[in-house]
Design goal:
The chain is α+β, with helices and mostly antiparallel strands. The chain folds into 2 domains: 74 residues, ACT domain (Alpha-Beta Plaits); 55 residues, Alpha-Beta Plaits, CATH 3.30.70.20. Helix content is 27%, strand content 31%. The protein has 5 helices and 8 strands, in the order βαββαβαβαββαβ. A 4-stranded antiparallel β-sheet has the order 2-3-1-4. A two-stranded antiparallel ribbon has the order 5-8. A hairpin with a 6-residue loop joins strand 2 and strand 3. Helix 1 packs antiparallel against helix 2. The longest helix has 13 residues. The two termini are 24 Å apart.
């Protein structure tokens, strides 16, 4: 099983070695996609985590116990359908293909399960339809 999570840290737990613990204690494979770690401030990590489903669930329970909030990228990255004009600017910059143009309708679609939460789409979207909530 492979999933992408955003781990949210606060000023009390930003310095805990939780990624190490996920690897060592739960035999999970962790790929860091994005990180903003600031001393004594709210911080976050975007991780792709792979492993057996039971071990992944135990790892998530460990994070919760450590005070680290873990949420899937689907909850952190959204496209506001009401203001999207399907211009396609985001599709040219999206490295994972999570934003793509459906043919023949030429409508821009978003597949959150492919999203790596890189945030590139936010900067190129003219109406600011993409929202990344870290």
């Amino acid at each position: 099983m492979k999933r992408i999570y955003v781990l949210h840290f606060d000023q009390n737990n930003y310095d805990k070695p939780v990624v190490y613990q996920l690897i060592r204690n739960f035999d999970l494979v962790v790929n860091i996609l994005r990180a903003v770690i600031l001393p004594r401030k709210e911080s976050y990590l975007v991780l792709e985590i792979s492993g057996e489903e039971e071990l992944l669930e135990r790892g998530l329970a460990f994070l919760k116990n450590e005070g680290v909030k873990a949420e899937t990228v689907r909850k952190s990255v959204r496209r506001n359908e009401d203001i999207c004009i399907s211009c396609g600017a985001c599709t040219a910059i999206c490295p994972t293909g999570a934003l793509y143009i459906e043919r023949p309708s030429m409508e821009v679609l978003f597949a959150p399960e492919k999203c790596s939460a890189c945030g590139l789409c936010v900067n190129v979207c003219p109406p600011r339809a993409m929202e990344v909530n870290f």
